[in-house]
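Illustration: Glycosyl transferase family 2.
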Amino acid sequence: MLAFVVPIKPKINSNDWEKDNQLLSRTLKSICNQTDNNFIAYVIYHEKPVVEFEHPNIRYIFFPFEYTLSEDIEDLEDYALKYYGRQYAEYMFDKSKKITYGCKNAIDDGCKYIMAIDSDDLISNKIAEFINSSDTKCPGWVVERGYIYLEGSNFLIKSNNLHGINGSTHIIKSDLVPVPDLQVNKLKHFNFFEAHGYLRQRIIDLYNLHLQVLPFYGTVYTIHKNNTSAISDIINRFQLKTYLKYILKGKLVDKAVREQFNLYKL
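Result:
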């Protein structure tokens, strides 16, 4: 069985809680649109999101740890600030620890593979069927091919390197996912999925195993003004370059894409 782990940012870090809930609703509809119903979606939260959509495979799980401020991250100086700004490190710590807690629940429930998904991204409805019918000896898969979607547009940008820029791009065998002591507040202990640009190499370093490439477009990376990474501001500053990408690598959001990813405008 496949587990999808969806961490939810705390309300204090949200610029628009209602919009974040709308994005999450669309993400959960995308997850639950699988052609194979043998999956569980774990939604990990501090404040329970308000989502009208219901599905028996969704499990809302309260995160039983207080929000950790940047000054309380134990490896802030030694590790976190080498890769992130102070505020972003705080966000990433919260997200990473929630993913880890979701993974612990998935492992305890006997899920064989785990995929972490950002609460605003969309996934192909073919993923669960593909994973559940694959060789169980496979250590996992990486989503290299996917789409970038600027909220409200009618086009997608194709990417052959999505795992380098988006976290919703790895499916890992559960017995390879580390679950460290959750009482410890070290970012390095929890960012297994969040350090997505390094995860393929990490699997090699830890286990001498190689992830396979998912053989189809697997994820839609959604860009909007509420992205924690502020990537929408970056794109807007380089509008001409973005338009050129639409021309060279663009794809119209057609009926097939909408059905596969449950992509619709908010």
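Reading the tokens back as a structure: The two ends are 31 Å apart (CA to CA).
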